[in-house]
């Protein structure tokens, strides 16, 4: 289980960021800042990485320099700043160093995320879409039967294997800019079939919805 998962479990219930169901999604460019996305998006991204993204600004700048042959000019072009600005950020001369401001911190983060382990990310995504993944979550699940009866929602811990077609649907939704609510619908449908209806062998007509998502972890391979 990832460190992020344990932190979310110990930190109490948090409501996932959602969009209105059925809203018109606009395409978005990944990467977004991790603070700007919901639990499912974060879980998918963490599952695609072999190592965590550097957290400190200094480490992120070192990574960008290494990715661009240690050229401050090339890093400056990527970030949309002057070469002198990058040099002030990374210099080791006493009193000459100037930390980047908030807007530049975001640009640095986005540049790092866009370049972090692209081949590993592509390989893990392909593996999930071909072989499926294991989904770990704690959330409030509600149930509705075909006859109209329903049960009061309650919190459950669930660990369940889901097939590659679910991964393909999730990644396609993400690529199209779907919000957390649309992703919840995909996972609720998949869990309803695989976990609650035991692959279609029982509880026919039972429909699942879940909310109050506390964490979403995805294990690939």
If you had to describe this structure to a student in words, what would you say it looks like?
46% of the residues lie in helices and 17% in strands. α3 (57-67) crosses α6 (102-115), α4 crosses α5 and α8 packs antiparallel against α9 (180-196). β1 (133-144) and β2 (150-162) form a beta hairpin. Mean pLDDT is 81; it is low at 1-36. It has 9 helices and 3 strands, in the order αααααααββααβ. The longest helix is centred in the C-terminal third of the chain and has 17 residues, at 180-196.
Largest sheet: 3 strands, antiparallel
Provide the spatial order of strands within the biggest beta sheet.
2-1-3
Give the CA-CA distance, first to last residue: 13 Å
Strand content is 15-25%
Work out the helix count.
9
Structural class: alpha+beta
What kind of assembly state do the chains in view correspond to? single chain
Radius of gyration (CA) equals: 21 Å
Mean of pLDDT = 81
Helices and strands, in order, run as HHHHHHHEEHHE
Question: What's the β-strand tally?
Answer: 3
Helix content estimate: 40-55%
Q: Which regions are unreliable across 5 or more consecutive residues at pLDDT < 50?
A: 1-36
Overall 3D form = elongated
């Amino acid at each position: 289980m990832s460190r992020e998962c344990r932190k979310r479990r110990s930190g109490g219930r948090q409501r996932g960021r959602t969009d209105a169901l059925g809203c018109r999604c606009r395409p978005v460019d990944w990467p977004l800042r991790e603070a700007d996305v919901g639990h499912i998006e974060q879980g998918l991204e963490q599952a695609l990485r072999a190592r965590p993204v550097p957290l400190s600004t200094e480490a992120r700048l070192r990574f960008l320099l290494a990715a661009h042959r240690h050229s401050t000019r090339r890093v400056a072009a990527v970030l949309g700043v002057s070469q002198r600005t990058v040099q002030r950020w990374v210099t080791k001369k006493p009193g000459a160093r100037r930390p980047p401001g908030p807007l530049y911190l975001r640009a640095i983060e986005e540049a790092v995320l866009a370049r972090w382990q692209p081949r590993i990310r592509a390989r893990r995504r392909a593996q999930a879409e071909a072989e499926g993944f294991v989904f770990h979550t704690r959330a409030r699940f509600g149930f509705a039967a075909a006859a109209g009866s329903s049960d009061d929602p309650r919190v459950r811990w669930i660990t369940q294997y889901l097939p590659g077609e679910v991964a393909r649907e999730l990644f396609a939704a993400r690529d199209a800019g779907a919000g957390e609510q649309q992703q919840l619908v995909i996972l609720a449908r998949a869990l309803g079939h695989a976990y609650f209806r035991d692959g279609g062998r029982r509880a026919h007509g039972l429909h699942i919805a879940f909310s109050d998502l506390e964490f979403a972890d995805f294990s690939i391979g």
